[in-house]
Amino acid sequence: MNGNGNELELLPVDAGFRETPLLRVDRLVKRFGKGCAYCRETANLIGGEEDPESTLPKNRCPVCGSVIACSGISFDLYPGEILGVVGESGSGKSTMVRSLYFDDEVTSGSMTISDYKEGKANLFEASAQQKRYIRNHLMGMVYQNPHMGLRMNYSSSGNIAEKLFAAGSFHVGNIRGRAGELLDRVEIPLNRMDEPPRNFSGGMQQRVQISKALANRPPLLLLDEVTTGLDLSVQARVLDLIRGIQQDLGVSMIVVSHDLGVIRMLSDRTMVLKEGRVVETGLTDQIL
Amino acid sequence: MEVRPVRDVSFAMEPGQFLGIAGPSGIGKSTILKCIYRTYTPSSGSIVYQSQLFGPLDLAAAGERTITHLRKNEIGYVSQFLRVIPRVSATDVIAERLLAVGTDRQEARSAAQTMLGRLNISRELWDGFPATFSGGEQQRINLARAFIVRPRLMILDEPTASLDRRTTEAVIELLLDMKRQGTTMIGVFHDWEVMERLADRILELDGAGSARLRNANAATSEGGVQHG
């Protein structure tokens, strides 16, 4: 309120609004089990919107009994947006993000990222090499369990160096400098950067994971139950950190959690999953 | 179950105006505000907003992406409750809003502190955590968070509800200042006196489901005080 004029200071008309989604996931289906002719044929039907009155069991194939963890999940994620994903245990939240990060191979569906081949290539059909590129450059993943995302016996800086190395950075000085920068951003004291994460507390391990995920400045960060299992004050710190990173770097995020408080504080939009399908989606304050 | 708090309410406001909404509790004052902010989606009808980026836009039908953008940049909302991440200092909680629209961190923090000073929050609290503040202080943090981005349209849901006399004065001062700068405002106040000092026009809702729009001074002469 400088009070130096009567005119309302107007924002530049563009003001960072982008119409094209960064990530577009269409009809993602993930089935566990061998599957049979029936569920292959009706894979789209089981999760799809074609037949809301269908009497098929919600997330099981009625013939062979395979579990369909994600049945036809579709959503868009826009640049700089935080999408919260909530749902009870077994609703397919984690399977969804793991599929997006190529940890699980999907049964069908498509995913495009606007930064990769102008958003025209279906990433689920990419070659192993392309997937590796995408995982290293375009996405970061933070797992609930730090053992999944970190090598516990390597130094913390080594963990980050691994990511940088994979992206084609071979100068040791540069790698160390960047690793220090990243660890500093997540408030890990620099005199501990050569310690392995197994010496760290759970909250610190989670923060190392975050910095590792951000190593190559990806436009998209996937967070799978990051704060679960941490005590409240550490949770708050991790949340604050995530929020700060989002503001500084403008990365888009998918935040999976069953803690509604976490979702309420972080996300712009929220998607509710139940039995492998999206039951509700909307602005966070509309849903919670 | 179906509750219909609001039915067939129509009104229009000019840019730069202040519209107050009055009526007994449970009549749907806050519901109207929440529909405008799109916390609730209206069952029917339209809310046309003259957006700076998108031009005329029906908020009732706009996409989520559009709404999140408008909330960040054009439409502000102040309620009685403060919901923020615990263990973030008051200054940062407020500066956060400016960072979201691309202001430099140092600049945002100093703007936030200016705002805290204006709202009579003592200097010792600037680095304190809002979750530990008193109700009135939290309320002021909430106001500061909304005011700092200088939205084009400001939605106020009882912003002076738990404030003392002196702070209410400061808030009114701030609101009038924003109005002078051209912000359009729409608000619900339980304090009739505050409403009268701020509002250009008042929308009165009554139990029969009808709404009347009148000028603020006309409301005084017709003894609208009982609605306070």
From TrEMBL, chain A:
The keyword Iron does not apply. The keyword Nucleotide-binding applies. Keywords: ATP-binding, Nucleotide-binding. InterPro entries: AAA+_ATPase, ABC_transporter-like_ATP-bd, ABC_transporter-like_CS, P-loop_NTPase. Residues 23-288 form the ABC transporter domain. SMART domains: AAA. It comes from the Bacteria. One of its GO terms (molecular function) is ATP binding. One of its GO terms (biological process) is organic phosphonate catabolic process. It holds the Pfam family ABC_tran. PANTHER family: PHOSPHONATES UTILIZATION ATP-BINDING PROTEIN PHNK-RELATED. This is ATP-binding cassette domain-containing protein. It comes from Cohnella zeiphila. The lineage of its organism: Bacteria, Bacillati, Bacillota, Bacilli, Bacillales.
